[in-house]
């Protein structure tokens, strides 16, 4: 079969919100302590931030960073993490059975976001915490009124409010593993109350309600708080067989179906509650999670197949760009990490490189494209008719550049595709960026860091119709000017 990709330069579908390339850091394992923050390390700056990690984060232009959990958030008391470090209480975290020193707290998080250029996203404690405590945290961070908590922030060295825009109303409260576990109806009422009063302190805040990847839960919650929250969340971790390439690379299509299902639940809720705004989807935890456990500090080795899966997730989110406007990989460093660290070194995993490719080389306007490709099926999640070739077409309207991402999900075969562009004139040298490795399961180690990465290939002279051979188990971004 001749694979075909048709691109319609003049058919805009929507804007891709860069927040879909967001990340998440939790007080868990070596994500924060020993990952992004390591006091006394020669690799750290004066704040205790690992400079090598910060540099890597800057290179993927992290747009938004979620903190402090996760499960940890549901037993976190923010006042433990402010003021002089030596005086901060050591606590036992009953979410992960670990000692929390509280040396990384609100000021450290905000400073980290400022240096990294990321928008902070704080998840509130709906488990062991009260509304009062959450309101105090919001006031401490965002207010400039002459109040106790604002003056406390000023005494702690920050005159200017932090202006945290995104506030999560709890985490996974539908699950028995979570402090505060409750029914959808109970949670929906709490989320309504929290969101309502948080916005009294700062009406510019956007709140995120806990969704459960379950239409019953999601509808019940939205019925109760949909008028006052801005997002509903969804978390998806998948466990495809590490030796089955097709199970792994097909898994993103399951995610696309679940995101679409959530969108339809939002539409149903909206149809009989007539919200005056569209509720957005925050896909604020996602990843492949195989064996990682507390015993292994939640660390998971990722390979090229996993990064092709991540590229598939990006293409899916592009197709749903009008409803999925934030996503956060779980997690950024060490814990299910896109980045791994040792005491004296850093390693960028294949998943990091998927972020690198899309965050740097794809554009923000999503346009129509049609792919004609052979399909495959897998037993994993009963996924059928998955195309080997999956494409997402975007344009940078200001600079008039087409940025086309093409995944070749074939494990062994290079695939030649004919690319036809309509609705504009393409000509000149295309820049070509490729994420790939020698084998479908290639991975990086501290000894061999470059087995999987993004490289720029030789430019190719193209016009409105051209062919390209997409290498087996790879993702390619083609950038070319159009008029
Ligand atoms: O990312 C690890 C954990 O997975 C998070 O703490 C929790 O929200 C989810 O169950």
TrEMBL record:
GO terms, molecular function: alpha-L-arabinofuranosidase activity
SUPFAM superfamilies, alphabetized: (Trans)glycosidases (SSF51445), Glycosyl hydrolase domain (SSF51011)
Pfam families named among the record's database cross-references: Alpha-L-AF_C, ASD1_dom
Alphabetically ordered keywords of this record: Carbohydrate metabolism, Glycosidase, Hydrolase
Domain Alpha-L-arabinofuranosidase C-terminal: 284-474
Enzyme class, first EC level, given as a word: hydrolase
Catalytic activity: Hydrolysis of terminal non-reducing alpha-L-arabinofuranoside residues in alpha-L-arabinosides
Superkingdom in the source lineage: Bacteria
GO biological process, alphabetically ordered: L-arabinose metabolic process; polysaccharide catabolic process
EC number(s) on file: 3.2.1.55
Family: Belongs to the glycosyl hydrolase 51 family.
Assembly and binders: Homohexamer; trimer of dimers.
Protein name, entry field: non-reducing end alpha-L-arabinofuranosidase
Originating organism: candidate division TA06 bacterium ADurb.Bin131
Gene for this chain: abfA_2
């Amino acid at each position: 079969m001749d694979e075909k990709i048709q691109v319609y330069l003049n058919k805009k579908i929507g804007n891709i919100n860069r927040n879909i390339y967001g990340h998440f850091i939790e007080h868990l394992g070596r994500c924060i302590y020993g990952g992004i923050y390591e006091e006394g390390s020669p690799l750290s700056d004066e704040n205790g931030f690992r400079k090598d990690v910060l540099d890597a984060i800057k290179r993927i232009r992290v747009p938004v960073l979620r903190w402090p959990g996760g499960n940890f958030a549901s037993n976190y008391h923010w006042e433990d993490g402010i003021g002089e470090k030596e005086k901060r209480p050591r606590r036992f975290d009953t979410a992960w059975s670990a000692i929390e020193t509280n040396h990384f707290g609100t000021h450290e998080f905000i400073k980290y976001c400022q240096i990294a250029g990321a928008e902070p996203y704080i998840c509130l404690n709906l488990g062991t915490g009260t509304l009062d405590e959450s309101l105090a945290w919001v006031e401490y961070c965002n207010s400039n009124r002459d109040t106790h908590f604002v003056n406390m922030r000023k005494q702690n060295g920050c005159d200017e409010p932090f202006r945290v825009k995104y506030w999560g109303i709890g985490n996974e409260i539908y699950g028995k593993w979570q402090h505060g576990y409750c029914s959808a109806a109970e949670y929906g009422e709490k989320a309504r109350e929290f969101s309502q009063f948080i916005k009294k302190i700062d009406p510019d805040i956007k709140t995120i309600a806990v969704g459960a990847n379950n239409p019953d839960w999601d509808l019940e919650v939205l019925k109760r708080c949909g008028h006052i929250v801005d997002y509903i969340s969804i978390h998806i971790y998948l466990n495809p067989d590490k030796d089955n390439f097709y199970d792994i690379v097909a898994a993103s299509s399951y995610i696309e179906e679940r995101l679409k299902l959530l969108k339809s639940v939002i539409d149903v809720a909206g149809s009989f509650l007539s919200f005056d705004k569209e509720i957005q989807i925050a896909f604020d935890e996602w990843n492949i999670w195989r064996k990682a456990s507390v015993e292994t500090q939640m660390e998971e080795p990722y390979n090229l197949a996993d990064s092709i899966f991540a590229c598939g997730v990006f293409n899916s989110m592009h197709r749903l760009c009008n409803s999925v406007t934030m996503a956060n990989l779980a997690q950024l460093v060490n814990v299910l990490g896109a980045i791994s660290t040792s005491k004296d070194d850093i390693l960028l995993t294949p998943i990091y490189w998927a972020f690198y490719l899309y965050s740097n080389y794809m554009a923000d306007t999503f346009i129509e494209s049609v792919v004609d490709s052979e399909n495959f099926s897998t037993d994993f999640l009963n996924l059928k008719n998955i195309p080997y070739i999956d494409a997402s077409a975007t344009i940078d309207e200001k600079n008039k550049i087409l940025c086309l991402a093409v995944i070749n999900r074939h494990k062994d075969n290079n695939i030649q595709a004919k690319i036809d562009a309509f609705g504009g004139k393409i000509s000149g040298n295309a820049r070509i960026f490729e994420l790939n490795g020698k084998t479908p399961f290639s991975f990086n180690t501290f000894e061999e860091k470059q087995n999987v990465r993004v490289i720029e290939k030789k430019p190719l002279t193209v016009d409105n119709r051209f062919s390209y051979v997409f290498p087996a188990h790879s993702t390619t971004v083609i950038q070319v000017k159009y008029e």
